[in-house]
Design a protein that fits this description.
46% of the residues lie in helices and 17% in strands. The protein has helices at 2-31, 33-51, 56-72, 77-104, 184-187; strands spanning 120-123, 133-136, 139-145, 157-164, 167-172, 191-192, 195-196, 201-202, 208-209. The strands form 3 sheets. Strands 1-2-3-5-4 form a 5-stranded mixed barrel. The protein has a two-stranded antiparallel ribbon with strand order 6-7. Strand 8 and strand 9 (208-209) form a beta hairpin. It is elongated and about 70 Å long.
Length: 215
């Protein structure tokens, strides 16, 4: 009997400790939910600084709204979550598109896509006219070969000829280009999404051309 009682005592005290710890944690979370929300908002803001895509900052706004709700109603978790989700959705689908348009209309703006034209990189998988991947400035991009008959093997150094949507159109930076039809004149007519790359002159028909010597 004495041994059984000792065993019960041995298991009871740790169990009581876990229960008390759980209750204390629940009480702390209930009283300090605002701290959790604002900490999440800070982490999302840091993620936005690293990505610059105006997505994480909208989620950070939602988390901050959840934190303000927690200060006003610390015991209403469902209300905090609801407010956070509503603010995040509204800013993502209403505010973000407006901000993106304004940023893109700013003088001197160049998107990540337009800045890729002419950059070197390296094929990470086999690149054909329909599929492939390249690494440019440490980032992986979908890619396809400039010419339908061209195949670029993994590890080959490439250069971006143009950007078609979100796909980099590339060609081998060194070696023979074969019948690709890629000439120096063609390389001057690089495009981003069908438009002349920033910094290139255009002719009266809207096609890239030579700079006017008078300018």
């Amino acid at each position: 009997m004495g041994g059984a009682s000792a065993m019960r005592t041995l298991f009871t005290f740790p169990l009581l400790g876990v229960v008390m710890l759980g209750e204390n944690l629940a009480n702390w979370l209930g009283e300090n939910a605002w701290a959790i929300w604002f900490s999440l908002a800070v982490l999302l803001a840091i993620a936005e600084i690293l990505s610059l895509n105006l997505v994480f900052v909208m989620l950070a706004a939602g988390a901050a709204a959840g934190g303000l709700t927690a200060l006003a109603a610390p015991s209403l978790w469902w209300l905090q979550i609801l407010v956070s989700v509503v603010i995040s959705v509204l800013t993502l689908f209403l505010l973000r598109p407006t901000l993106i348009r304004r940023v893109r209309n700013m003088p001197g703006y160049r998107s990540a896509f337009s800045s890729m034209v002419g950059k070197p990189g390296r094929a990470t998988v086999r690149i054909t006219a329909s599929a492939g991947e390249v690494k440019i400035d440490g980032q992986i991009w979908s890619a396809r070969a400039f010419d339908e008959s061209m195949t670029i093997e993994p590890g080959v150094e490439i250069e971006v000829f143009e950007v078609d949507g979100t796909v980099a159109v590339v060609y081998p930076r060194h070696g023979e280009l074969g019948g690709s039809g890629l000439t120096d004149q063609t390389l001057q007519h690089r495009t981003v999404g069908g438009e002349a790359a920033p910094g290139e002159a255009t002719t009266s028909e809207g096609q890239p051309g030579e700079e006017d010597p008078d300018h």
